[in-house]
Design brief:
By secondary structure, the protein is α+β, with helices and mostly antiparallel strands. The protein is 30% helix and 34% strand. The longest helix is centred in the C-terminal third of the chain and has 19 residues, at 186-204.
Amino acid sequence: PGVISVSQVPVAEGKSVQQTVEMLTRKLEVLGAEKQGTFCVDCETYHTAASTIGGQGQTGKLMYVMHNSEYPLSCFALFENGPCLIADANFDVLMVKLKGFFQNAKANKIESRGTRYQYCDFLVKVGTVTMGPSARGISVEVEYCPCAIANDCWNLLMEFMQSFMGSHTPGIPSVFGTKHDSIYSPADTVVQYMELFNKIRKQQQVPVVGIR
């Protein structure tokens, strides 16, 4: 892949998620971007089963199992603050067999799906992020296809994003910080989606007051 930035765009004031997505895609179409099918990135959360945790007071680790329609034959497993494992699609079957060790927090399934757009050397995916039946946010993925070194093309990426994202253009993704001059990989995209999904999940968690 080229170099990719994944970011969240806030819902426009007085608009719904869907209306904001339409505003963004309209701007892309005005620029001359062409629709090229759809995409989906999903993420399921697993936590280590109680039986595998040693002493009391220890918290279970989280693992995220993710799929990206750009890589239909792969499955990505990411540990919290840890490595990203790229496996083949059979990994999902393995997770079912490991349910004594990892339990699926089904209520936490989150995904982003939407339309892909091609504009010159850029591929743009504007997605609606949903948890359960409701739309929770908007993701924008922008890829500069000809280049695989983040540092070489970040300014170009940012300039293009400003043309349709305006003041919501993101800063440089944290995964770039460790890359410097190394090759950008599909795992870097999945990590960015995981960070975005976790941010959206946290925004939904309203603190409960008065419970001791």
